[in-house]
């Protein structure tokens, strides 16, 4: 069996972590739905909203701090990714309601089954959006452009070198 290059191993590891985190989102939301349904007899629509929200919160923390983690994050970076993430999750929620609710209302499919259908739909879609938009790594070295619009070399630090005599 051929050895995988480091970048492929790293990406494969990230995909496994993403799947585990997605599973945590699914099962925490699914478990909350079952709890609210079976124990508290909560009506379908409020239950679906609340249980989805619980899963989303679990998923954000796992994705941000484990799957797409960076060593140093500023509050601004965390806030920016949180805004993108929760905006995406809101639009996903509307699609999820259409899938789960539509199957439930129109086809009499149990919401317990509908949630699996919905989760399958979002698996690949969300990975790509998380990687390339929500938790995208920014370049740490700024590039400057010359007047002709061509990218120049990365900017050098303005700080003097430690060993330089002044």
Written account of the structure:
The protein has helices spanning 6-39, 44-67, 75-107, 111-134; strands at residues 143-145, 151-154. 69% of the residues lie in helices and 4% in strands. A hairpin with a 5-residue loop joins β1 (143-145) and β2. By secondary structure, it is mainly alpha-helical. It has four helices and two strands. The chain has one domain (6-136). A two-stranded antiparallel sheet has the order 1-2. α3 packs antiparallel against α4 (111-134). It is globular, with a radius of gyration of 22 Å. The model has no long low-confidence stretch (mean pLDDT 85).
N- to C-terminal separation?
57 Å
Structural class: mainly alpha
* Arithmetic mean of pLDDT: 85
Q: Order of helices and strands, N to C?
A: HHHHEE
Number of helices: 4
Gross morphology is globular
How many structural domains does the protein architecture include?
1
Strand order across the largest sheet: 1-2
Residue stretches low in confidence (pLDDT < 50, at least 5 long) are: none
Strand content: under 5%
- What is the percent of helical residues? 55-70%
Strand runs, count:
2
Major sheet: 2 strands, antiparallel
CA-atom Rg in angstroms: 22 Å
């Amino acid at each position: 069996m051929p050895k995988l290059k480091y970048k492929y191993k790293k990406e494969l590891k990230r995909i496994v972590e993403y799947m585990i985190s997605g599973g945590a989102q699914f099962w925490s939301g699914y478990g909350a739905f079952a709890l609210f349904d079976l124990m508290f007899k909560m009506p379908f629509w409020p239950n679906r909203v609340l249980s989805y929200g619980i899963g989303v919160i679990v998923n954000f923390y796992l994705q941000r701090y484990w799957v797409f983690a960076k060593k140093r994050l500023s509050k601004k970076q965390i806030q920016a990714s949180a805004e993108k993430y929760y905006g995406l999750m809101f639009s996903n929620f509307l699609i999820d309601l259409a899938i789960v609710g539509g199957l439930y209302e129109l086809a009499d499919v149990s919401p317990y089954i509908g949630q699996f259908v919905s989760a399958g739909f979002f698996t690949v879609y969300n990975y790509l959006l998380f990687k390339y938009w929500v938790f995208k790594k920014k370049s740490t070295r700024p590039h400057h452009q010359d007047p002709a619009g061509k990218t120049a070399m990365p900017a050098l630090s303005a700080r003097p070198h430690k060993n330089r005599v002044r």
